[in-house]
Amino acid sequence: MNLPIVAYGHPTLKKVAAEIDADYPGLNDLIANMFETMYSSSGVGLAAPQVNYSIRLFIVDGTVMVDDFPELAEFKKVFINPTILEDRGEDKKAEEGCLSIPHIREVVERPDIVRIEYYDEKWQYHDEVFEGMAARIIQHEYDHLEGILFVEKISPLRKTIISRKLREISAGNVDVEYRMIFPSKKNLK
Ligand SMILES: [Zn+2]
Q1: Domains of the chain
Q2: Considering 71, 141, 146, 177, which one is annotated as catalytic?
């Protein structure tokens, strides 16, 4: 089932998400629905707050970009209760987008290597290091659990330039192929 994606300006995107237990109700269905939602909106990552669940869960599948980024070969994963333990390596700049902020792409600077501990969908514990585009996708999705959006990490000048577009997105004045929940409409949860 496709879930609606909350748009920029929605309060759920600004919350620090809560950890969950293995008996969190409907977790397997939620994960399956998040994958379906991510694929039908052509995303490579999706965090639970983006579908209006303020819990520490995100999914990724970057395998579609493996030709450009070999590090994404096996990069289809579920991250539950993740903690970034360490980031290192050079800061690298690359363009990012976000399903909650349609049609906006901006250059974001992030460390190239990240070490993260997390549980997968079978509640197996992992402590792993990711590099390159995998590290970037993880940091973008992890930020969602902390209530941080990539547009908060761009230069003040770029922020000013896109501020009107961001207001239009919050107001629902944006064309998207997927269902969204806009903060200024009545469907605000
Ligand atoms: Zn995002």
Answers
A1: 5-177 (3.90.45.10)
A2: 141
